[in-house]
Amino acid sequence: MSTSRFEQAQQYIPGGVNSPVRAFKSVGGEPVFIQRAKGAYLWDADGKQYIDYVGSWGPMILGHAHPEVIDAVKTAADNGLSFGAPTESETSLAQKICELIPSIDKVRMVSSGTEATMSALRLARGYTGRDKILKFEGCYHGHSDSLLVKAGSGALTFGVPTSPGVPAAVAEQTLTLPFNDLDQVESLFAELGDQIAAIIIEPVAGNMNLITPKPGYLEGLRKVCDQYGTVLIFDEVMTGFRVGLQGAQGLYGITPDLTCFGKVIGGGMPVGAFGGRADIMNHISPDGPVYQAGTLSGNPVAMAAGIKTLELISVPNFFDNLTAKTKSLLIGLKNAASRADIPLATNGVGGMFGFFFTDADRVESFADSMACDGARFNAFFHGMLDRGVYLAPSSFEAGFISITHSENDIADTLESAAEVMQTL
Ligand code: PMP
């Protein structure tokens, strides 16, 4: 059944999907078409049930279709879908974000993570009067031109577009270095520091599987930015309200100048945001000259989902409970792997996790992640999917757990994992 659905989709939509990883290209086979979701579960268009560890790529931290979030959305929708004029709900969500995240004095809503990072970069460039930026290999910050650039080799690398269509003149302004290597950042800044507007980083990298920052690494970036007057941008589109209530910056105790959000702050609706120090944010139009806008920005239905979601994750012990679920899943996966004599490494932070088919004890760089056994991952992915466990269809994506994943769900997942590991 799904075959014909995918074929039909491919007739009208490039690759049959509206975002590439959904097409299952790297794992092979045909994507599952989802019809509905509730709590920890998805149901496909044929009625098959899955335990979901994708969670719409991060937003569904409360589980799917949380009744209070759905009610908030319905109530907002009854009042109209969009006005293109200010609403109190925008102030409420902005206030909540500013209260929860000490580094944020002011925040502007947008409709995606891509817009958030693109706008934060423009602001950093406008604020500093500099053009160059530094990003890290394997970090994904959405698909704006400046950020679709991958690393070359060496400490000082001028950008090469990863994607055709990114003008060389734009890509040249994006410098790239390996994640988790502070020495290379310090050498680059010694040479070019006074030309670099911003360092943008996923403080916990979730787009090359899951890589955590080495002790001292984020502190080092903060120091370099202070020394050279460079804006430190934490892209917390994935980690914000996901690894802890104060995001990765709260967890590691680092204060960035600007932060980007997405995913959880919209509770499943299209919302992104960027915010930070007032003296920088005041450069944004209409207070300042850096232009940024959006017809649907601060959409009232999306704000309602975001406000309710942030309210429900602010309850005591929410993140302790979520983190405990991640831990029990990862310990179980490691046990299942060792019983099957399969080498496996794992990383986990809050409600995010990664697992790696590798002999290495620790995975802490893009190169480490690239060196993992992709064929084995693909076989594991399909074995799990057959047994009703929906994992991200790529070994370079983090996994996500929700507060509705029960001990039974995790036990069922681990039973399937144990079976599949025996077949690898
Ligand atoms: N930044 C990070 C860290 C992300 O993980 C993503 C999306 N996965 C983005 C930015 C882009 O967000 P969006 O897909 O909403 O444009």
Automatic annotation (TrEMBL):
Against InterPro entries, the record matches this protein to: 4pyrrol_synth_GluAld_NH2Trfase, Aminotrans_3, Aminotrans_3_PPA_site, PyrdxlP-dep_Trfase, PyrdxlP-dep_Trfase_major, PyrdxlP-dep_Trfase_small
What are the GO cellular component annotations? cytoplasm
Q: What is its main location?
A: cytoplasm
Q: Name one GO biological process term.
A: protoporphyrinogen IX biosynthetic process
Chemical reaction(s) catalysed: (S)-4-amino-5-oxopentanoate = 5-aminolevulinate
Name the UniProt key words of this record, in alphabetical order.
Answer: Cytoplasm, Isomerase, Porphyrin biosynthesis, Pyridoxal phosphate
Which GO molecular function terms does the record list? glutamate-1-semialdehyde 2,1-aminomutase activity; pyridoxal phosphate binding; transaminase activity
- Name positions with the PTM N6-(pyridoxal phosphate)lysine: K263
Q: Where in the cell is it found?
A: Cytoplasm
Identify the pathway: Porphyrin-containing compound metabolism; protoporphyrin-IX biosynthesis; 5-aminolevulinate from L-glutamyl-tRNA(Glu): step 2/2
What EC number(s) is this enzyme filed under?
5.4.3.8
Fetch the Gene3D superfamilies from UniProt. Answer: Aspartate Aminotransferase, domain 1 (3.90.1150.10), Type I PLP-dependent aspartate aminotransferase-like (Major domain) (3.40.640.10)
UniProt KW ATP-binding keyword: no
Family annotation (SUPFAM superfamilies): PLP-dependent transferases
* CDD domains in alphabetical order: OAT_like
HAMAP family, per this entry? HemL_aminotrans_3 (MF_00375)
Q: What is this protein called?
A: Glutamate-1-semialdehyde 2,1-aminomutase
- Species assigned in the record: Arenicella xantha
